[in-house]
Amino acid sequence: MTSNRCAVCKILNETCVQGCISAPHFPSNDTSFEDVSRVFGAMNVRKILVDLNTPEQRQIAANCLRYEAEARRRDPISGCHGMILHHKSILNNIEQEIESTKNELEPYVGSDRMPNFFDLPMPEDFLTTSASLDFFVEKIKSLNAVQKNQLMQLPTADAQMIMDKIFWKGEDQKKDEDGNGPGADGASTTACQ
């Protein structure tokens, strides 16, 4: 049975009993526990899990310990605080880009028809999923165009209208029956001199 010990019992060199409190959260093949153990210590992790009452609380605590350990591995000085500052900087840059884009779009669509962009909602399962943020990045990447427009509160028709106004500015430039504009077949639309 020693080969099926959970990661905490392996580090503490204990036998893993049937109802081991740390086994569901740190199984024997958990590679992230090495970082957690370096930062917090295996005995402290066990104490934290024992002090919590429900399995849901233990799962949230285990994931929080993983996040902090991963952050400390990446940035031993700042840890999660450094990650927060980094992500705030990224969000600030994105907000500035959105404002710049809104200023560029306003002459085409008018100030009353400008799309509103809202913060992404915090997923309900954020603290109970795996420690990697890749899960959420993949979730956002997997959205189709309609879902992305819904997330940004931008109706599909408005998005198409905005794109048409930007790329087909002139009244004389009309789309053909296939929805293609001038020069869509690769031919130049400018007169050669």
Automatic annotation (TrEMBL):
PROSITE patterns xrefs: LOB
Record-given protein name: Lateral organ boundaries LOB
Annotated spans, Disordered: 172-193
Entry's family note: Belongs to the LOB domain-containing protein family.
Residues in LOB domain copies: 4-105
Highest taxon of the lineage: Eukaryota
